[in-house]
Amino acid sequence: MSNTHKIIIFLLLGGIVAAALNALNQESSKTNSVGEIGSLGQSNSSVQTDESRSQQPLAEPETSASEEVFPEEITEDDVETEKELVDEAMRLLNSTKDEERVEGVELLATYPNSESEMILAQLLITDNDPDVRNAAAQSLGAVDVPLDSTIADLVNALEDEAEEVRLSALSTLQGYLLSQEKDTESYKKIDLALKNKASSDNIPADIRAAIDAFLKEQ
């Protein structure tokens, strides 16, 4: 008998065995179905176990040393570009045109640090144009942990003659509170200042109402 014939016979036998196993599996599944019908209404502990297992939080994948992600290195070009933009912001802030000062405020806010924070706070209090003061109040929201002087300037801005400035100052103060833990000194200072302003006759009624509504939600 040639090797080819042997291979053919082997394949045929394999097919016969597979068919027999398939028939046995079908018979077994029928038997299991009958058993399952008879067990309806009983607790399905295995399913519950699977479901509870599926609800377990997935473990975070460990990161090997070769997979660690490092921040991009700051190049000399990046520093030079930032310097040019800050210089441009300062040029605009010294403009006599209100719209250019607003543009300067918005540009300076893209580089939040203690220096830019103090400049924005100064504009909030001293600039003659309400659009500039409003932009400053909004831009101070980019500061993560404000200086005490910044908080004081924003609180004082709640008495600004322009409604949009008052609302922006309040919005920024609310953002500070929501981003900090209640046991921090900064949170306590802002919370106390808002409570004092809420009862002050120097604050317009709409701002007092807005402060009260916000504090009740905290």
Task: Describe the overall structure.
- With 218 residues, this protein is mostly helical.
- It has a domain at 76-217: Leucine-rich Repeat Variant (Alpha Horseshoe).
- 69% of the residues lie in helices and 0% in strands.
- The chain is built from ten helices and no strands.
- It has helices spanning 3-38, 45-54, 76-93, 98-108, 114-126, 130-139, 148-156, 163-178, 185-198, 205-217.
- It is flat.
- The N and C termini lie far apart (90 Å).
List keywords for this structure.
218 residues; mainly alpha; Leucine-rich Repeat Variant; 10 helices; disordered N terminus
**Count of separate DSSP helical elements:** 10
Going by helix content, strand content and strand pairing, the class is: mainly alpha
Q: Rg from C-alpha positions?
A: 35 Å
Unreliable stretches (pLDDT < 50, length at least 5) are 1-20, 29-70
CATH class of the domain at 76-217 equals: Mainly Alpha
CATH architecture of the domain at 76-217: Alpha Horseshoe
At the fold tier of CATH, the topology name of the domain at 76-217 is Leucine-rich Repeat Variant
The N- to C-terminal Cα distance equals: 90 Å
**Averaged pLDDT, please?**
76
Topology as a string of helices (H) and strands (E) = HHHHHHHHHH
Beta-strand proportion? under 5%
Largest sheet: none
**CATH-level-4 superfamily name of the domain at 76-217:** Leucine-rich Repeat Variant
